[in-house]
Amino acid sequence: MRKILFAATVFFLSLFSFRFFKPNQTIHITEMPSNVSEEMTQKSITIEYITGKFEPKFHANFVQIDRKYADKDSLLLRKETYEAFKKMYAAAEKEGIKLTILSATRNFAYQKGIWERKWANLAPQIADPVARAKNILQFSAMPSTSRHHWGTDIDLDNLSNAYFEKGPGKRIYDWMKKNAAQYGFCQPYTAGRVAGYNEEKWHWTYLPLSKEMTEFAEKNLKEEQISGFNGAETAVKLNIVKNYVLGINHDCY
Fold first, then answer.
1. 107-143 residue pLDDT tens
2. How much is the pTM?
3. 95 in helix, strand or coil?
4. Residue 70 DSSP code
5. CATH hierarchy code of domain 39-252
6. Confidence of residue 25 (pLDDT cuts 50, 70, 90)
7. What is the DSSP string of 192-226?
8. What are the residue ranges spanned by the domains of the chain?
9. Which residues contact 112 (CB under 8 A, 6 or more apart)?
């Protein structure tokens, strides 16, 4: 009889808890199984994310960069990238090196604006679409293929290789080559690669995140998925995923 009463009590207490539990209350889980955590990480990287088809300012993993670290307001980065950059900034500052972020996250719409302005400007001089795309691809990515979509990549201090070859610019570049890896950063577009964009001494990627995203792009991103802008049809002809998305410094992949 006592067993029956005990079971009934537990049953009604369960009903009571369910009835009065508020949907917006937070349930704190002290430990999550490793396989669940891994699955959630995998699901957070999607084709939409890789191709920049989302709004970073409304994405939970992105934060705004403080004006102290950038040359303009409203720049955004992944939280992990930003925290690593702040540590690197502080270390560089102690040695008299000033790191300034010029460009950070750029979604599909932003990259489309850059691409289509260049596409239209080059039209009078370069009629052939493939040749025109190749010209733009010296330094600018097609929408859907830019590493800047991911919130892992930054452009620092100046957008000219010549700036980093002498004076203050050379000091910055030499410091980055020596120290950036300690903070997780790598230069994806180095000199001497067999394919891809020209060298960019200003462009650095946060490897702990971008390596996984590069691997996802290798397995899942297809040229046929790249569309929605002028000149998109050249993606297939240029083998854009292999030659540009994956045409990076091997140390960054």
1. 999 999 999 999 999 999 999 999 999 999 999 999 9
2. 0.83
3. coil
4. B
5. 3.30.1380.10
6. very low
7. T-SSSSPP-TTEEEEHHHHHHHHHHHHHH--GGG-
8. 39-252
9. 143, 228, 229
